User: Fold this.
Amino acid sequence: GPPPAPGRQPARRAWHHAAAASGVDEEAARELDDSAARAQRRGGYAAAATALERAARLSPDPTVRAGRLVRAATMAMYAGHPRWVGELSAQVATLTDEPALLAEASLRAGWALAVTTRFAGSLGFLLPVAEAAVDEDPVLTLDALATATTPAYNSGAPEHRQKILRIAERVPPQEDEIGRLWALAGCDPVRNRARALAMFARAWTDPLAEPGARPELDLPLARMVVLGGTAWVLDETAEAIRLLGAAMDHLRRSPTSGANATVAQALALALYESGSWTEARAALDEAYGLAAEGGLENVVVGAPVLRATLLALRGDTEEARAAVQRAVHGIDLPNCRSLQVRTHYALGAAALAEGDHAAAYDRFRAVYTRQPEPEPLHFHASDYYLADLVAAAVRTGRAEDARLVLDTTRRRLAQGETSARLTVIVHRADALLAEPDDAERHFTAALADPAGDRWPFERAQVRLDYAEWLRRRRRAVEARPLLAAALEVFERLGTRPWTDRTRAELRAAGVTPASPPAGSADSLAELTPQQLQIARLAAAGLTNREIGERIFLSPRTVGFHLYRIFPKLGITSRAQLRDALPEPGE
Assistant:
């Protein structure tokens, strides 16, 4: 067998020594401290936290004890155990009045609440630290603001974001600006877009990132995650997938890590928006499993809401509704506006799939307030549903109300810079509400920018709307290529309700749409040799574990490859593999 892992012996000795020690014993504590450092280097964060917590209990000096508890809380954070982090950081204030230790304990306590849904409580720990340190310790302030931006984003309440941006303005330029970048983008992605994109570009040539061939692989993990989140919020979706995907690859290599669940959920959102729905589902399953284990409530609710959205878009409406109800049960949604908006959309998409435009309109309209000047319920999430709101309004005679929302939104967005994605959404909304002579200008503008292809489902919806408009004007020949392009996307994504509507339009435009064969030759060409090998073994009935043993991969990695293989073959389950693959030698 393999030799025993280095460092295990001293660790065992340290524990024996600690077990024998009654009361306090600095020597035993120091041995445990060393074993924690070794565990940390292996990525064994939970083991490191346990050793440090025990070392703290044995430490005679209260300040040393407080320091070890703070480090234990940090390790427990990386291991993804918010309740444990909360308990450890709460003990620090009873032991010391050392400002640096108290500040760090508050940062950990803030994180522990940020990953639940207690966003205001989290900010109650983080913002005072950021404010108090602004003159003495600007690095700490930016660190606290970066941690605070995520709960402020999730909460959606404007006062938190305004406070973060006000404090950020007071921090002079630092060598490392990554915390400020996330604060600017995460708190106001439209108004701060130009500045954030410039900072984002500079972050690659950062003095803290080691030089190398593939920049995302050399970035420290935390930076990769923050840059990935920033890219996502700015609709640099492909960039977000690259960064968050690289971060997940890093995290999967370490045995325990709590950043996993939040990173996997962000990656799932970016994959969903980019039209990689099978991969998004894989990332969601992973996010949910990790979050349920660690008690990261924000992901435990958020992941099923996105899964429900995918079900609704594919026409599994009963299942989608049940999943949403289960997910949000007992959650205070008005204090979690980003989740609230995504819940409205999932239920609105289910109504649309059933052809109930009135119910869909009520859901989409709920992502804006009912004031004379409608405000977005969530400053970032709401605007992506503007065109869906307008489309449902036009079909149910609510065009005036929708126009009010569109006009106020356009005025608000004009105060900053919109992404290519948001620009298309506003053009689609404009086209649907426009006077007959004016609509075409907006439809062509919505399709003019080739960047729009990066969000295939949204682009296919524009093409379908434009084609319907053309056909109603007896321009069926011009409608056909638009419908064919939309149908290709809807079929690939498996969105039955949209596929059916597009096929009906094609028939009305004088075309009989053909069904694509599963497992056609060009889909096989997309598979790598390794993927083809995995597909054949799975088709032969082997489990992920058995396949992994044969080709030296972990069962989880095999599962990930299969999730990538299914959409390439145009299938959705293992059972369909055999039919989709030709016989070897064909």
Observations:
- Residues 73 and 85 are 5 Å apart (CA to CA).
- The domain at 521-580 is CATH 1.10.10.10 (Arc Repressor Mutant, subunit A).
- Confidence is low (pLDDT under 50) at residues 2-7, 206-218.
- Residues 138-155 form the longest helix (18 residues).
